[in-house]
Amino acid sequence: MLLYRGAPAGPGAPGSALARPGSGPQAFGIRLSTMSPRYLQSNSSSHTRPFSAIAELLDNAVDPDVSARTVFIDVEEVKNKTCLTFTDDGCGMTPHKLHRMLSFGFTDKVIKKSQCPIGVFGNGFKSGSMRLGKDALVFTKNGGTLTVGLLSQTYLECVQAQAVIVPIVPFNQQNNILSGNGKC
């Protein structure tokens, strides 16, 4: 996972406007609720210090279903930008599990008496990563499938999104094609 730290989006930043009434996604003719891109920045304020955000990300790596034994945190330079990287040797996520992890309010964490995770509300990765930077790029591998997910304030500003959009692209290594259904 790469995190890039940029300036927070302000009220006048591109893509920060609220959706106009009558616009936005619909299903079966019914308007659906959306989440403003500004929420990513405001949600990150739940972490008053960067260390609590890092704790959320480390907690995810050591969850019992992840099985990571080693976690590395490094500072990297990518295209003259300073990035914080988190790498673990866990089992990786299927495209479906990555989709749930990048969605708000979903969690697969199970509370056990021997290990109580920091967060069980499906918000920790999103709030933690956005506290540390404007963009989180997640690379994961599970079996023969590589998946990339992008939670990015920069992208949302660039495309002037009216709602949070999180691109997720799965790629099957065996036949070198993009996986269509996102479930493994």
Automatic annotation (TrEMBL):
This is MORC family CW-type zinc finger 4. Coiled coil: none annotated. Gene3D superfamilies: Histidine kinase-like ATPase, C-terminal domain. Pfam families: HATPase_c_3. One of its GO terms (cellular component) is nucleoplasm. InterPro entries: HATPase_C_sf, MORC_ATPase. Residues 1-22 are annotated as: Disordered. One of its GO terms (molecular function) is ATP hydrolysis activity. It comes from Ovis ammon polii. It comes from the Eukaryota.
